[in-house]
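Annual report, structural modelling task.

Input specification for the alpha-D-galactopyranose complex:
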Amino acid sequence: MINKLIYASAAARVNIIGEHTDYNGGLVLPTNTAIFTRVTASPRDDRVLQVRSSTLDETESFILDDLHPGETGTWIEYVKGVAAGLIDAGIKLRGAELLIDSDIPLGAGLSSSASLELSVAKALLGIAGESISDTDLALLCQQAEHNYAGVQCGIMDQYSLACAQYGKALLLDCRSLQTQQVPLPADIALVLTDSGVRHSLTDGEYNNRAEECAAAVELLAESVPGVASLRDLSLDALETNKASLNEVLYRRCRHVVTEIQRVQDTFAALGDNDLQKVGSLLNACHESLRDDYAVSCTELDVLVECSNSSKRVLGSRMVGAGFGGCVLSVCRKVDALTAAADIQASYAAASGSVPWQHLVAPAHPARLENE
Ligand code: GLA
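The model returned the following structure:
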């Protein structure tokens, strides 16, 4: 019987590049940053999980033996989904009280929901006195999001938060789940600036993009042999078979295919310490997300322009699923604070309010703090 308090935490993920490629079996290149969801847990003698979010000032509870997906449509679904996944994996969960607080801006493209899932999973495992491999935990948390929150997300967020090592970027092949952990160049700084616009992944646009990609694969499979996902499609094959798709589906495919190439190019540029090149790849990524994938919005486009108007910024793009949230800018460390101030002043002048900012800093993978 564990009678101490359990402390667990998970960071936020910042995707350097590779947006909307994960659920297409493609490549992504995220890193974690030092803003955290923290969970404090204490065991109960019954089968109730009572969960308080001090961030939202809300308390919810449910019984571990009576879990059904999607009833409330609120944040508690993520917690229920994680508990259900752990029970299905054979973990003997115990009743507990959880207190959750978070510094991660919600719905801002920094994977606040995956961070909630991973930190809760670590806390519940801590209370149960059991463990699961980090890769299995990432997959379990992704299922929680599919089954309980109704978002057909890819694996990037959960995998990054569970597995990306301190200060490293994670090159993840979302088809094979093979990874490479790479240190970031000593000279690089990454600045996040919040547009202030909020999306909800549960409002349908995200699932809609995933469905468009699946529909395109089905159409292309008739003429291009061996295409089981957009990962299998070359730009040449897409151009040759353009006539099988309508304009919208063609553009969705062009984003995914070119974005996978940009991940490879960014990985190489980081290895060469070519930050100028990284910046231009981020700019190209934003244009593709805006024009072909249609997941940007006016405020994000304005923020990217404001950011790039600073001569210290090497490139910028919207980050995460889109429709709002943060812009990521790359610059040299020596310029980081001035670049951040330039961006903040420029966007404050354009939008009328001073945006939240954060300089990406190394963070550990999701963990129990008292392990
Ligand atoms: C969200 C999803 C991820 C990924 C990104 C877009 O963060 O949870 O799986 O698809 O959007 O790249």
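The mean pLDDT is 96.
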